[in-house]
Amino acid sequence: PRWLPWLFSLIYLVAATSLVLERIGPKDGWGRLAGHVRNTWLGLFAVTLLIVLAFDLLRTLWHLLRGWRKTHPLSGRNAIWSGVVILALIAAIAVYASWNARQIRVVQETIKIAKPADVSELQVVLASDLHMGLVMDAERLQVFVDAVNSQKPDLILLAGDLFDGTYADLAEPERAAAVLGQLQAPDGVYAILGNHDAGEDLDQMLTLLRQARIRVLLDETVTVRGILLAGRLDRSPIGAQLGKRKDLSDLLSDVSLDQPVVLLDHNPLGLADARIQPVDLMLSGHTHNGQIWPGSLIVSQVYENGYGRLDSAGLTQLVTSGVGTWGPPWRIASQSEIVSIRLIFTGS
């Protein structure tokens, strides 16, 4: 039909300009809809690109194996069927990726620290990268809170990127604060800021967290059960974030050498600093473990430890892939997770 190219062009134009439409539109109206279109468009673009590249690779291999002939398996009538297959693959991957991103797994870790604390064991839940906003609304926050509380933690630690960069993207901030306030841990809930927790909305973000009874460590330390808990500002915030962060040596200047030290630093690149300080456990997020393949391959090349556990000369680093998503509300070859940590103190 003659109208089909025009319809396709209109859809493409709206999708491609959705970022601009989101910025200029009302957050309680079509601007919010444009944000969802933008996120979905980014995911579809990435998946489509990978699938088309794969089909082009198959075509090239066909040429190499059969000779450079005029016909190949993706030409003529087969081109129509190949298009149908591509669209079906894109749809199937999109459905799976959206479902996968909503499943919060629980990763179990046991970590021994050869220093004394006021308790012999402590149950800690680590979570990161909620990205509260368009996608992570109050309803999905409830799923997260229920998952954390099911672990019956003594202490809850949130390793940054609690917001998705813009406070106004959160449709019901009061409800979100009430849901987060349901987190239950007798030794408290502590958080740090990530690179998205910054900018002109920072005061509103901090107010919401205070309403939820979450203490945010802003380049400061606190002692919990004899453990020194240190929380750093982000190394590269997107916007203003209370000035330049302290050197880790200054943050830990008063620590006793026989006191367990747990460091919250959103970006795993802080591992180099932690190695030369008396840090026993470093907890990070930020990477999402790539979120959408081949992002995980890139993460593994950029970071010494871009995801999971690393034990190195008395220091353990845990990097979680996080709970939420950035951009496309999808995960492919990564998982949404919280980490349930059994901390055992063996010092005397």
How would you sum up the global shape? globular
CATH architecture tag of the largest domain: 4-Layer Sandwich
Residue share in helices?
A: 25-40%
Structural class: alpha/beta
Note the total helix count: 10
Low confidence ranges: none
Which homologous superfamily in CATH is the superfamily of the largest domain?
Answer: Metallo-dependent phosphatases
State the domain count.
2
> Radius of gyration, rounded?
23 Å
Task: Return the average pLDDT rounded to an integer.
Answer: 91
Order of strands, main sheet, comes to 1-12-2-3-4-5
Number of strands: 12
* SSE sequence, one letter per element: HHHHEEHEHEHEEEHEHEHEEE
In terms of DSSP E residues, the strand content is 15-25%
CATH topology of the largest domain: Purple Acid Phosphatase, chain A, domain 2
Q: Report the CATH C-level class of the largest domain.
A: Alpha Beta
Distance between the termini: 80 Å
Largest sheet: 6 strands, mixed
Short description:
With 348 residues, this protein is α/β, with parallel strands linked by helices. It has 10 helices and 12 strands. The chain has 2 domains: 97 residues, no CATH class; 241 residues, Metallo-dependent phosphatases (Purple Acid Phosphatase, chain A, domain 2, 4-Layer Sandwich).
